[in-house]
Amino acid sequence: MATNRTFTMIKPDAVENGSIGGILKMINEAGFRIVAMKYTKLSAEAAGKFYEVHKERPFYGELVDYMSAGPIVAAILEKENAVADFRTLIGATDPTKADEGTIRKIYAKSIAANAVHGSDSDENAQIEGDFYFSKLERF
Ligand code: CMP
Question: N or C: which end of the chain has fewer CB within 10 A?
């Protein structure tokens, strides 16, 4: 059964571009409630751990370098059917394939620097949220 929470990061390229406000506005207008949020920076070690599931992929090294290159915004979001609805809002991983009006279509530069992360399952939403936030940081 679908849960009502997902996890997102606004990635270093979008933070550097000054796109935090625009992306959060789209998230709010799509009906997501912010449960937890922080502005932080991943070490290379932490980025490697977060994306461990992609360790064998050819882009893993590039992904870790990119995700630890600058600050990010991490957040847990709440809405009915959160994981699927958030993936619809952000669009395809590759922004050239993302639908018009999606966050990645508007803000992403490339498949690597794709502006935002969104959990791909309820299980990963739980794991990824727990990676960043304690119970006391959730409201
Ligand atoms: P994300 O949704 O955060 O999950 C895994 C990330 O790996 C993805 O967004 C992209 O940033 C990155 N990624 C996926 N495929 C590629 C690829 N072919 N080349 C480079 N980076 C990729």
Answer: N
Q: How many domains does the chain have?
A: 1
Angle, helices 82-90 vs 122-132, to 10°: value is 80
User: pTM of the prediction?
Assistant: 0.96
Q: Which domain holds residue 41?
A: 5-137
Q: Does any ligand 1 atom lie closer than 6 A to the CB of residue 112?
A: yes
CATH of the domain at 12: 3.30.70.141
Distance CA 3, CA 37 (A): 19
**Ligand 1 atom at minimal distance to the Cα of residue 116:** 3
pLDDT tens readout for residues 38-91: 999 999 999 999 999 999 999 999 999 999 999 999 999 999 999 999 999 999
Q: Rounded to the nearest 5 degrees, what angle is found at the Cα of 24, between the Cα atoms of 44 and 77?
A: 75
In whole angstroms, what is the distance from residue 103 CA to residue 90 CA?
A: 5
